[in-house]
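Last lecture ended with a question: if I hand you only a sequence, what can you say about the shape of the protein? Today we answer it with a concrete record. The protein is Probable membrane transporter protein. Below, first the input exactly as provided, then the predicted structure, then a couple of comments.
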Amino acid sequence: MRVFNIASFIMPELFPDFLILALASFVAGLIDAVVGGGGLIQIPALFSMLPNSAPATIFGTNKLAGIFGTGAAAVNFAKRVKLAWSAALPAAGAAFLFSFLGAYTVTHIPTEAIRKSLPFILLAVAIYTIKKKDFGSIHAPLHTGSKEKLFAVLIGGGIGFYDGVFGPGTGSFLIFLFVRFFGFDFLAASAVSKVINVATNLAALLWFGYSGHIIWQLGLIMAICNVGGSLVGTRLALKHGSGFVRKLFLMVVSVLILKTGYDAFLK
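The predicted structure:
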């Protein structure tokens, strides 16, 4: 197994690998800050650069890098957007618990059915978003009080469990559900999704860290690049608004459909 450490980064033969991972982390942070889906970029890059590492180590290192970028995006959104904490916090709490439960469950149940159904679910999400031209363009919250908290817990718990069991498209699913069932616009939904994503990533990190599946030095250096991309992505989302987020959302979902379809039926 190729081992990364601080000294190895100055070795000429490993420096190109580091540059690729740094660039991948930056772009992943940018995309993830807006609509989620950064793992589409960062995970394949890690698999390519660390071909002999266990998948769990790849996922653990990816989560370590990603949580910093997601956290930075959540902080930046909170400064500039009126973040719906009354929905975000209950959803994040449920997501944390159920993500950990999902990570435990995945070791006891087959996930093939989830893998094969995912492209079709994502296709339905894309078609629904395309057909409804004004979907996510207006911020008009539908729920308050206990009803809002109940919906938040249900969505947070469900997506948190999915993230623990499987994971691809978690951020995009969160955005779609908060637009569809809460009446948020895409920008507000993206902001809330970051808070919830921090919770699911933290739950996964606890498990991966406990089981020794994180390359800490590499993950932390990638985290710096991920945060840089996250700051750029957040700035773009805030500058261009919900219309920009909607277009990027559809692009990422389209790539997810192709990627998950290939993994499920052709790989």
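Comments.
1. The two ends are 24 Å apart (CA to CA).
2. The mean pLDDT is 88.
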